[in-house]
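Purpose: get a first structural picture of the assembly so the mutagenesis plan has something to point at.
Setup: two entries, given in the order below. No constraints added.
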Amino acid sequence: AQTVTQSQPEMSVQEAETVTLSCTYDTSESDYYLFWYKQPPSRQMILVIRQEAYKQQNATENRFSVNFQKAAKSFSLKISDSQLGDAAMYFCAYRNQAGTALIFGKGTTLSVSS
Amino acid sequence: NAGVTQTPKFRVLKTGQSMTLLCAQDMNHEYMYWYRQDPGMGLRLIHYSVGEGTTAKGEVPDGYNVSRLKKQNFLLGLESAAPSQTSVYFCASSPRTGWHEQFFGPGTRLTVL
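Result (structure tokens, whole complex):
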């Protein structure tokens, strides 16, 4: 069974600084997708960034980028130029090959200070 | 487009009562899912459906039933609510092909006393 581990329950960063959230996963599949979701206090799940396992190039979306290390089964999220609006719970998620479910990590709460 | 909507947004039940949560999506997605979110646990899959008339169990299906009579709707039922079912419930939908990116509803906060 696939598992997703986020080892940092809480992280903090100052405005304009850079922070990296860690995620590791375990799977026997060779083709899969990885996602980072943001959940602000409103509770709405918002997709931040996604990565296809067969693509070696790391995905980037504006201030958000990932460091995808397939052999190490690692998928970290880097937030550059942090903003107060980035404060939220962040979830790493693995999509199985059949596309029938996302497997979530337990989340990392990110706080941003001015 | 409304995307994924959930009804109700909040609900309080007494132990043993029953209720149904309704999820509706207007994106013509084939796949639909029900998750529960508990503090420190992330989201866990309860049941999912890959098409009208089909359902399957997820990671934590006990105590819940689902139905998908129409492609756009996915119902989650609690026949006899228990305090352990106090949680936030999320519905999501995704297309069958491509990224299978899941689009989430706003969630339903359920409290069982």
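The radius of gyration of chain A is 14 Å.
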